[in-house]
């Protein structure tokens, strides 16, 4: 018997796509407190290997969170247990990034899923690779 | 000889503290696209194990990013290579959370640091545990 939780089985896939604006990056800096000038100051960024401002790595991770939080099991409570992230390439203002989350493990008795989580840009380049663990909880009436 | 990068050696520590408001949480939802109602809707959250709205897990991770991006090596470029996160306890609006990043490994020839990264709340409870990898780059004039 194939294990499933909330209709999800191994190989189930959800995605979330977002265009990243410089305003988004500035707002992310304000809300997290990460005002590293690499993310907002073009003159500073020109002196780095990136040559131009880049989004915070954790901004791309936020799009994984959006895929898991809004697309994976919208009729259940998705409890985020863990996330491993490798930042592979920069995200620039104007990029459109897509988080793709693929179920790799289902533990029905614990209501837990493991997922491969990848963020790609509009050119198909992997900007983040990694994996996540979530628990799927019922909404209590 | 003790290895160091930008004055940092094993056991060097940086911290970043932030109070989390419901407005911050709502803004984080807008900027990432993660509009899961668990983070903003008290009536919905009451039907979950958390009983009240909680911050996105990735919001707490953003405070780690702030510690690394603004406190670790402000006269250098901190390139985020990787971050592993385990979400251990919820962050609520009104909480004050502190990211503590402790250098655990220094690879001077590769300009790389490994760090233990922990986020605690005002009661000392660990809300996130994990580890990070960064590269320290020079600012080019």
Brief account:
Chain A has helices at 22-32, 42-45, 57-72; strands at residues 13-19, 77-87, 96-107, 112-120, 126-137. Chain A is an alpha+beta fold. In chain A, strands 1-3-4-5-2 form a five-stranded antiparallel beta sheet, with helices on one face.
List keywords for this structure.
elongated; Thiol Ester Dehydrase, Chain A; 3 helices; homodimer; alpha+beta; 141 residues; five-stranded antiparallel sheet
Description of the molecule:
The structure is a homodimer of 141-residue chains. Chain A is built from three helices and five strands. Chain A is of the alpha+beta class. The model of chain A has no long low-confidence stretch (mean pLDDT 97). The first copy, chain A, has a single domain, classed as Hotdog Thioesterase (Thiol Ester Dehydrase, Chain A), CATH 3.10.129.10. Chain A is elongated, with a radius of gyration of 17 Å. Chain A has helices spanning 22-32, 42-45, 57-72; strands at residues 13-19, 77-87, 96-107, 112-120, 126-137. The A-B interface holds A 16, 18, 24, 27-28, 30-36, 38-39, 44, 47-49, 56-59, 61-66, 69-70, 77-87, 137, 139-141 and B 16, 18, 24, 27-28, 30-36, 38-39, 44, 47-49, 56-59, 61-66, 69-70, 77-87, 137, 139-141.
């Amino acid at each position: 018997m194939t294990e499933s939780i909330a209709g999800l089985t191994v190989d189930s896939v959800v995605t979330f796509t977002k265009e990243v604006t410089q305003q988004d990056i500035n707002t992310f800096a304000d809300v997290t407190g990460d005002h590293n000038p690499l993310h907002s100051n073009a003159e500073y960024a020109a002196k780095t290997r990136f040559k131009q401002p880049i989004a915070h790595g954790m901004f791309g991770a936020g799009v994984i969170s959006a895929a898991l939080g809004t697309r994976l099991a919208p009729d259940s409570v998705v409890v985020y247990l863990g996330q491993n992230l490798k930042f592979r390439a920069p995200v620039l203002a104007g990029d459109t990034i897509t988080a793709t989350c693929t179920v790799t493990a289902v533990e029905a008795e614990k209501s837990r899923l493991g997922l491969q989580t990848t963020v790609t840009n509009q050119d198909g380049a992997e900007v983040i690779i990694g994996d996540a663990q979530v628990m799927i909880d019922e909404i209590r009436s």
